[in-house]
Amino acid sequence: MASHRRPKQPSRTRVTVLTTAAAAAVALSANAANAAPSEKPSKDEVKAKVEKLYEEAEKATEKLDGAKEKQDKLEKEISALQDNVARGQEELNTLRDGLGSMASAQYRTGGIDPSVALFLSSNPDDYLDKASAMDQLSAQQVEALKKVQEKQRSLAQQRKEASDKLKDLADTRAELAKKKKEVQGKLSSAQKLLNSLTAKEKAALAAAEQDRATRASARVDLGNSKAASGRAGAAFSAAQSKIGSPYVYGASGPSSFDCSGLTSWAYAQAGVSIPRTSEAQANAGTRIYSQSDLQVGDLVIFYGDMHHVGLYAGNGQVLHAPHTGAVVRYESIGNMPFQFGVRI
């Protein structure tokens, strides 16, 4: 006779696991069904994001330019200090040799105690502090000791100054590397966005930019502006000769430029030295707050933090190095937030 056994029931744990898995699967399916499909950003959205990244890269570039300028200045100052220290040490050695010779001669004639000669040759500072011993020295020896003392103090000060500047230089180089990395990161992100565009979209953006530059150039040719004169005119002419040159961050000519690199190079061709960064150039002359008062060749400062600069080209246009991927060109002042002009 067959035995009738009740079918084995699944364990409570197994039921719970299966139920949870099923619920998760249902939830995932629902989420997948309700999730919006991934959409590629439009050409205009990419353009806006890229322009923002370029602006951030230029801010970092101006900081990088400032750090590089400081590095160059420190290196020159350190070199001069080290040369001075080397010459000063030679002078000190000569003074000590002369002092030692005097002491030796006096000792040979029996006119000076051996301990005094020791003081004279090895530790003039301590010896001078011993006023009771001064009557054992001639006026010539006193004068020689004072010169040694002054030279020692001068050398100590110069060595400390050189040491401080070397530390500052190390900090500046670290800042330079940091800013360079920041700029490269921003530009890399911008390039990735541009690479997401189709060839047709890239061509459309390039055409729009070229059209804008052409229209700006035409407005400059119309004139109707206060003519440049003197060195400002010479600087503007130099900048005009570089129209079409590529923007390269950190570059100051003669074949590529960033914004402040172009303006500082242009004025250098006119025989005028101005600071390297846009922020420093903002304080290099008389500020002009009304656009109607600008003259061709004046510097034009943009953005609240003054991270961009160009040269006034007349008729509401500026000649500048815009950003990576662009070239030196004319552009309407209205395309950027104008702050003020600077007359050098």
* Cα end-to-end separation: 116 Å
Class from helix and strand fractions: alpha+beta
Secondary-structure element pattern, one letter each: HHHHHHHHHEEEEEE
The amount of beta strand, in percent, is 5-15%
Number of strands: 6
Major sheet size, sense and barrel closure: 6 strands, antiparallel
Helix share, percent: 55-70%
Number of helices: 9
Mean pLDDT: 81
What is the C-alpha radius of gyration, as a whole number of Å? 37 Å
- Which stretches are low in confidence, meaning pLDDT under 50 for 5 or more residues running? 1-7, 11-37
Cα shape: elongated
Oligomer: single chain
How is the largest sheet built, in terms of strand order?
A: 1-6-2-3-4-5
What does this structure look like?
The chain is an alpha+beta fold and 344 residues long. Helix content is 61%, strand content 8%. The chain has helices spanning 12-34, 43-108, 114-122, 124-129, 139-195, 199-222, 230-240, 259-269, 278-281; strands at residues 286-288, 299-302, 308-314, 317-320, 329-332, 338-343. It has a six-stranded antiparallel beta sheet. A hairpin with a 2-residue loop joins strand 3 (308-314) and strand 4. Helix 2 (43-108) runs antiparallel to helix 3, helix 2 (43-108) packs antiparallel against helix 5 (139-195) and helix 7 packs across helix 8 (259-269). The longest helix is centred in the first third of the chain and has 66 residues, at 43-108. The chain is elongated. The chain starts with 11 loop residues before the first helix and ends with a strand. The model is unreliable at 1-7 and 11-37 (pLDDT under 50).
